[in-house]
Design goal:
heterodimer, A: about 280 residues, mainly alpha, 12 helices, B: about 350 residues, alpha+beta, five-stranded antiparallel β-sheet
């Protein structure tokens, strides 16, 4: 009996170590290109297997100040442009997606299943949506508005699903009815009780849809025609020429920006949380 | 004039009749209970009073004023749900001041009112805590404070103790009962737990399948149920098929007397409560088929000579009774309740 127990225990110990090792190797494999990209942004050359000529801040300087990058526009401009467009998409998703998610979670109305399907439908590839968008609204393709609307459409499912999940985890009907019985109008109930209670989902949905929109390539490639290119287009256009290390610096700045936005939103999310005992 | 009245209220959802021609008058300061099994329409009745449902037919009045079509935010009702539905994005204090704020009460006044209520409910030290850090009992008190803070026309309690453990439920039942008595607030208490309703409410409305079966004080409902459903739903009941002539009830195998009756002779159902049965020297033999020790008494399940089942409440001192024994029982004619007709 003792033997059987110790056998099981050893087996469990080796099994866990093996799983840990596989996880660690997978993580290193996945993270390695990201780390290399970040490191190479501080190197003066990356023509061999590993980047060489550390440490230089020239590429970061080029990106930030927009000097001598061998491209038509500054990478920094592209980055700022994409950040703004993605933010616009998130704002639209917040205004449209949160009420839709709330309605789907709260009310049993005619066509609810179809609304749910349409809210998630834009998970179709960006390239398809881009072509459809151009065919439907050909005049919009020259402006950033097209990209904002497209990003919002493409990333709406992430917002709707994250927020819907938050709504479904609470008793929406009783929350709403409690607030209304206390004298709050429906809009006030929605804004001061329902939305704040779904804060976690709203923040998660915003982070996901913003980061994915800021780096969206397929839709941008189809719809973008002139002017400052979105970051993904800029990187594609300059990835094979000399400005690759500038692109690496731009991508690194993008990483940092995502980290900054995520941490900030999490801090905002935690603000107003109460002491837990 | 009743503080709150439901006048011939019917509520239909498509082809389903959830509430069928129900009339209830709740007096100022009265605690009215609505009890009934799941799906009997009691929660729909509460939602109609709150304004979350609109009656298909009938009128709801607050102090004589027709509020049937008034939206819930303008009805001034305090609502406490089973889940309490506290706002986790706000502290306990903000939960309690939310209602007065919506009613335009000034900041200082609503804070003062909130602290008074928190103190009354003995939870003032929780003012800055998040509702999600509180125990079920504490959350219930916060829910109650929040509902009372708007000084409501009527306090609506929808199964507010369902999720609590038995001991806490007992304590809170007593506390809530005393609080409602002290405050004198008109209350509608909806529960499927008839024991809670009996101990806390001034009057009880028993509902079944959308109908109002009976309305009365707890003793009236318990001792003089209007029909078999009420007799069976409220308390533990022995319902025996019998024939009556005058005040003589024939059970087939024995005759017993029933003093309190007004109806015609014929087939009836006789209600005898287990704790009204006199065990000792009596004309009826009951064979004990099972015994359940319940602490305060022993519940004996027995079989009458014609095979009908009978529950008898035995004193704890009768420890020598065992399964298979025959008990001789008798009934006080005043405790034999004859139910004249069944619906």
């Amino acid at each position: 009996m003792v033997g059987r127990f110790s056998e099981g225990s050893l087996s469990a110990r080796y099994g866990r170590s093996f799983v840990k090792l596989v996880l660690a190797l997978t993580l290193v494999f996945l993270a390695f290109p990201v780390v290399m990209t970040f490191l190479s942004s501080f190197a003066s050359d990356w023509s061999a297997v590993f980047p060489t000529g550390f440490v230089t801040f020239d590429h970061w300087g080029d990106v930030i100040y927009g000097t001598d990058i061998g491209a038509d526009v500054a990478v920094g401009s592209s980055l700022a442009y994409s950040t703004g467009l993605a933010l616009g998409g998130v704002v639209i998703n917040l205004i449209v997606g949160v009420p839709i998610a709330s309605a789907i979670a709260r009310y049993d109305f005619w066509g609810r299943d179809w609304v749910n399907v349409f809210a998630i439908l834009p998970l179709a590839p960006g390239i398809i949506l881009g072509i459809a968008f151009l065919r439907t609204y050909p005049d919009l393709s020259t402006s950033g508005i097209a990209l904002i609307i497209g990003y919002s459409l493409l990333k709406a499912p992430y917002m709707v699903m994250a927020v819907q999940s938050s709504f479904q985890s609470m008793d929406l009907q009783q929350l709403e009815e409690s607030a209304r019985s206390l004298g709050a109008s429906w809009p006030r109930t929605f804004l001061t009780v329902i939305v704040p209670n779904a804060k976690t989902g709203i923040i998660a949905g915003s982070i996901i849809s913003w980061t994915l929109a800021a780096a969206e390539f397929n839709f941008s490639y189809i719809v973008y025609s002139r002017g400052t290119p979105p970051l993904a287009i800029f990187l594609y256009n300059n990835i094979t020429n000399a400005s690759f290390l500038n692109a690496a610096a731009a991508v690194s700045i993008f990483f940092l920006l995502i980290a900054l936005v995520t941490i900030s939103l999490q801090i905002i999310g935690n603000r107003g949380s109460f002491r837990r005992i | 004039m009743s503080e709150v009245s439901l006048e011939n209220i019917t509520k239909r959802f498509d082809s389903t009749v959830a509430v069928d021609d129900v009339s209830i008058d709740i007096a100022d300061g009265e605690v009215m209970g609505i009890v009934g099994p799941s799906g009997c329409g009691k929660t729909t009745a509460l939602r109609l009073v709150a304004g979350f449902e609109t009656a298909t037919e009938g009128t709801i009045r607050y102090a004589g004023e027709d509020v049937t079509h008034v939206p819930p935010e303008n009805r001034n009702v305090g609502l406490v749900f089973q889940s309490y539905a506290l706002f986790n994005n706000m502290s306990v204090l903000k939960n309690v001041t939310f209602g007065p704020k919506m009613h335009g009460v000034g900041k200082e006044e609503r804070k003062k009112r909130a602290y008074e209520l928190l103190e009354l409910l003995d939870i003032e030290e929780l003012a800055d805590r998040s509702p999600q850090t509180l125990s079920g009992g504490q959350q219930q008190r916060v829910g109650l404070a929040r509902a009372l803070a708007i000084e409501p026309h009527i306090l609506l309690l929808d199964e507010p103790m369902t999720g609590l453990d038995a001991k806490l439920k007992q304590t809170l039942r007593q506390e809530l009962g005393e609080l409602l008595d002290d405050l004198g607030v008109t209350t509608l208490y909806v529960t499927h737990d008839q024991e809670q309703a009996m101990s806390m409410c001034d009057r009880i409305a028993v509902m079944n399948d959308g109908h109002l079966e009976q309305i009365g004080t707890p003793p009236e409902i318990y001792e003089e149920p209007a029909n078999e459903f009420v007799a069976g739903f409220i308390g533990t009941a022995n319902l025996l098929k019998a024939t009556i002539r005058g005040d003589q009830v024939s059970l087939g195998f024995a005759d017993i007397a029933a003093h309190k009756r007004t109806g015609a002779d014929g087939e009836v159902t006789v209600l005898i409560r287990p704790d009204d049965i006199i065990v000792g020297d009596g004309p009826i033999d009951v064979e004990v088929t099972n015994l359940f020790y319940q602490g305060e008494h022993i519940q004996a399940m027995g079989s009458l000579p014609d095979g009908q089942k009978m529950k008898i409440s035995l004193d704890r001192s009768l420890t020598d009774v065992s399964t298979g024994d025959t008990l001789s029982v008798d009934f006080d004619p005043d405790t034999v309740h004859v139910i004249e007709s069944t619906r």
